[in-house]
Task: structure prediction
Amino acid sequence: MAAAIQITAVRLSGGTTHQHITRLWWTNPATAKTGDNTRAEIVTWIEDERARPTRATQVGTGRRSPW
Result:
């Protein structure tokens, strides 16, 4: 299963809508890790998490799952 984070704060620049988000602060409830990243870094992280194979996609492939 993909990691889940909670966004705890955002910094806006030049407006008040989601297009103006420049930085996000987050916490991972499973690990208690916290951090802050740019919007671009968070988008890349989300895309990478979506691309990760899950146990379900490994079934029937003949490959051993890393989990």
Strands lie at 6-12, 21-28, 33-38. The chain has a mean pLDDT of 83.
